[in-house]
Specification:
three-stranded mixed β-sheet; mainly alpha; about 325 residues; single chain; about 70% helix
């Protein structure tokens, strides 16, 4: 269970991943816009809006990485780790507003016959091919980092993408995967438009891109919402901490454990433990200090740790625990 958490090296790698994605999106966004204006392709204009949304997202993620690394202070004793979740939530909103909404509008605009008739459609193909290469490079960097996190945390990729501890890298990976799918949809729409002479295919491609971005925005926003509200730590970490605590000679039983993800690689842990009755007040103080040190050395994710002595026979306490979890700990 030993994990280095959000180390400076990892933070630098996250920043590089976001910067690479930003550079790729800015480059392909300009190319898509030029090609869309020349050819009149709604799908290319939707893809340009997609790149604008992604670029805005990356800028917000860079702000998230910078602001969340500030140390704790008097007004924020648990640090600024949750700022990463707040700015990531804004980034999901940027995808919705800049990308999905415009793509749906452009699709309806084209299907209803208000769009510009196709001109030099051939120009779209080299632009889409170059965009695919640049997005693939960015995606490879993001997914490589996500896989590394998956190995470090002993979690599956699906689990990590669904319930991340750090949404920044996941956001880039999901954006890039959506970008690659969106480029494929745009290419199909442009090709069918040129083949059939009907701009409806181009409009349908725009709607498809809009629907894709809506899904990505919802998934990212949902993950950030849970983290902002205060999601508990991974249950495997809970069980490992419980096992470590119950191995202490001074502790009879763990009555309750409350945890919350306070940032990337940061966990707040609050424990109510039933101590051996023979332990004196002085021994209790020494034991708590030793346990605190031991847990921090064993589990680098622990940012703050609190322990409260309480009898396991206290029915009021047990009822509160049962009302919250259904049993003494947060096992699922």
């Amino acid at each position: 269970m030993k994990d280095d958490g959000d180390t400076p090296d990892k933070g630098g790698e996250r920043t590089f991943t976001v910067l690479l994605a930003l550079a790729a999106n800015l480059a392909v966004g300009v190319l898509k816009l030029i090609a869309g204006l020349i050819s009149g392709s709604g799908a290319l204009l939707s893809e340009a809006a997609h790149s604008v949304g992604d670029s805005t997202t990356e800028i917000l993620l860079l702000v998230a990485l910078r602001r969340s690394d500030r140390p704790a202070d008097r007004l924020h004793p648990f640090g600024y780790g949750k700022e990463r979740y707040f700015w990531s939530l804004l980034a999901a909103g940027a995808i919705f507003v800049s990308g999905a909404a415009f793509s749906v509008y452009q699709g309806l605009h084209t299907i209803l016959g208000s769009g510009k008739e196709g001109g030099e459609l051939w120009i779209n193909y080299p632009v889409l091919a170059l965009a695919f290469v640049l997005e693939a490079i960015s995606f490879n960097q993001a997914i490589r980092q996500v896989r590394k996190q998956s190995r470090d945390q002993h979690r599956s990729l699906l689990s990590l993408m669904r319930t991340p501890e750090d949404p920044t890298t996941n956001s880039v990976a999901m954006e890039d995967s959506a970008a690659l799918i969106g480029l494929t949809i745009a290419a199909a729409g442009v090709g069918l438009h040129q083949l059939t002479g009907s701009a409806i295919w181009d409009g349908l491609a725009s709607l498809g891109i809009g629907a894709l971005l809506l899904i990505v925005a919802f998934v990212l926003a949902r993950a950030c919402q849970e983290l902002l509200i205060g999601r508990q730590a991974d249950t495997r970490l809970l069980r490992a901490i419980e096992k470590r605590l119950e191995a202490q000679d001074e502790i009879d039983d763990i009555v309750d454990m409350l945890t919350m993800q306070t940032g990337a690689g940061r966990v707040l842990v609050c424990v109510r433990a039933d101590f051996v009755n023979a332990v004196t007040a002085g021994e209790l103080e020494d034991a708590c200090a030793r346990i605190d040190k031991d847990l921090r050395e064993t589990f680098a994710q622990i940012d703050e740790f609190f322990i409260q002595p309480v009898s396991s026979e206290n029915e009021d306490m047990r009822e509160r625990v049962r009302a919250r979890y259904g049993r003494a700990l947060a096992d699922e």
